[in-house]
Design brief:
The chain has 533 residues and is mainly beta. Strands 12, 13, 14, 15, 16, 17, 18, 19, 20, 21, 22, 23 and 24 form a 13-stranded mixed β-sheet that branches. It is built from two helices and 31 strands. The longest helix has 26 residues, at 2-27.
């Protein structure tokens, strides 16, 4: 009797253990039962009481964000698989994402305790991890990271099991579904138009990194690229100002110019800006490095800087040239030189070879931009008109002649107008294009709605200033004054409520600053201020 009781208990324990094993086996889903072409099976292999997709239930697949317009390569999506059948109370599922060739189309990963990924011999499966308990329906969620660019169509396959939670494989309904997801068409990035250059700031500072570290490279071409230039330094900085061309140095030499950029109060670049693009007409300054009188170079063939509109894959070819002579009145190799002559022809190839985001030391969020890749082949020659000391005759001798290839990469944004980073690559000793960077120019400004504006009714003085600035204005409208250092960092912020305001600058270090005045978010005036405390 005792033996019989022991045997009975043992049999009961084994039976309970068997039920427990059965529950454990099926409370966690199995891989390769999604109904996909590579699986060739679904949950009816075990749960076979009812035919597939009968009984009025369903399994559905949804995504957040929506995949209706296709997936973005590398993006993350929350996938929801919902199993529904009235009267059922426990639910399970299996899921696969397959690309062409029936291999993994992306990466599946769990985001809660209700699901987990399994790999047996084929593609990764996402399955339930413990039954989903609900009244007639349950939704499982997990993450899908879309595959790389140019993967093409991905198909989702899902099988759902709606059970009566009786611990057996009977009385359960199985449903399958699939969803075809296309790859979204690649965006073309931003488009730069003439308006983006019309709204250039009236004045700003440009930093120059003359010794860029190894981490600074032009980066890759292509779509959705992030170019990270946070390691840039400011070895030099140059003040830039847009002025009326006729007021610029030797401005009369450029009668068709409608834009003049004064760099560092020494160099003047003259442009013709049209809706179709910007051409460099020439430049003026102390070109011979011998002081006044200064010189101007007028291009006989203007140089195309950029064409509009410019977007990803926009390209152009151009040839610019000049032939300029200047009075010199100095010596060359001990010989009196009356004047010099320089000729140069530049063949230009430009391609917008990428778009994405450019990050700078002063704006970690990054600017949307396109990248202009320019190659210039320069053929130049220089002559000196010398004076024969014996005969007194004047004649030209060639002093140099070179052919050199240069490259530049310019990152152009539509947020603050125009280039934000410009990388110059120097030619090697043989005149060939080199991968060494000679310098990087970058704009330290942050996107604060910069707009070109002139308002003669606002007066800022003294300049240079010590201890305080006075701002007088005829308008009674309130203004906000923000001052930035040469790195683009905000160092002062003050409201102007009256027509005359005194602002303390005693705490600022000596140096040059940019002062901007805002009205309702728009810049109404920009001034360069020198602090000399």
């Amino acid at each position: 009797m005792k033996l019989k009781k022991t045997i009975t208990l043992s049999m009961a324990a084994l039976f309970a253990l068997g039920l427990m094993s059965f529950d454990i086996l099926y409370s966690t889903g199995e891989a390769d039962y999604t109904g996909s072409p590579i699986d060739g099976a679904d949950c009816t292999s075990c749960h076979a009481d009812f035919a597939l997709n009968t009984g009025g239930g369903s399994v559905t697949i949804a995504s957040s964000p929506s995949l209706a317009s296709g997936y973005t390569a590398g993006a993350d999506y929350t996938i929801s698989v919902t199993v529904t059948k009235s009267g059922q109370s426990a639910f399970g599922f299996g899921f696969e994402a397959l690309k062409s060739g029936n291999t993994d189309g992306g990466i599946l990963s769990a985001i809660n305790a209700g699901s987990k990924s399994l790999v047996v011999a084929g593609p990764t499966n996402m399955v339930h991890d413990g039954s989903g308990i609900g009244s007639g329906t349950f939704t499982f969620t997990f993450n899908w990271k879309a595959p790389a660019t140019s993967t093409g169509t991905v198909t989702f396959y899902a099988a759902g099991n709606a059970t009566d939670d009786d611990g057996t494989a009977s009385g359960d309904y199985v449903y399958t579904s699939s969803l075809v997801v296309n790859e979204a068409a690649a965006a073309a990035g931003i488009t730069i138009t003439a308006a983006d250059y019309t709204n250039l700031p009236a004045s700003n500072f440009q930093n120059i990194d003359t010794l860029p570290v190894v981490a600074i490279t032009p980066g890759a071409a292509g779509a959705n690229v992030t170019w990270d230039f946070t390691a840039l330094n400011a070895n030099l900085n140059v003040a830039n100002e847009l002025i009326t061309p006729s007021t610029g140095l030797l401005g009369s030499s450029f009668p068709t110019a409608n834009m003049c950029l004064n760099q560092g109060n020494t160099d003047y670049l003259y442009f013709d800006q049209q809706l179709s693009g910007i051409d460099l007409l020439g430049y003026a300054g102390d070109l011979l490095q011998n002081g006044a009188p200064f010189e101007a170079v007028v291009l006989s063939n203007p140089e195309t800087v950029i064409t509009f509109p410019s977007t990803y894959t926009t390209s152009f070819n151009d040839v610019s040239a000049y032939d300029a002579s200047y009075a010199y009145n100095g010596t060359y190799s001990g010989i009196q030189v009356d004047s010099v002559r320089e000729k140069e022809t530049i063949t230009i190839t430009s391609l917008i070879d990428g778009y994405g985001t450019v990050i700078t030391p002063t704006y970690a969020t990054g600017y949307p931009c396109i990248r202009q890749n320019v190659t210039k082949v320069s053929v130049d020659s220089t002559w000196a008109k010398i004076v024969n000391p014996l005969s007194g005759l004047h004649y030209w001798i060639s002093t140099s002649g070179t052919t050199s290839t240069y490259r530049s990469f310019t990152y152009i944004t539509n947020v603050i107008g125009g280039p934000i980073v410009d990388i110059q690559m120097k030619a090697d000793a043989a005149g060939n294009a080199n991968t060494d960077i000679s310098e990087v120019k970058w704009n330290p400004a942050t996107p604060v709605g910069i707009a070109k504006y002139s308002n003669s009714d606002i007066r800022v003085y003294p300049n240079p200033a010590s201890e305080y600035l006075i701002i007088n204005k005829t308008s009674k409208e309130n203004l906000n004054v923000v001052m930035y250092d040469v790195m683009g960092r905000e160092v002062l912020n003050s409201a102007i409520n009256g027509q005359s305001t005194k602002i303390s600058v005693a705490s600022l270090a000596n140096g040059t600053y940019i002062l901007k005045m805002f009205n309702k978010g728009a810049i109404v005036q920009t001034n360069n201020i020198i602090i000399n405390n």
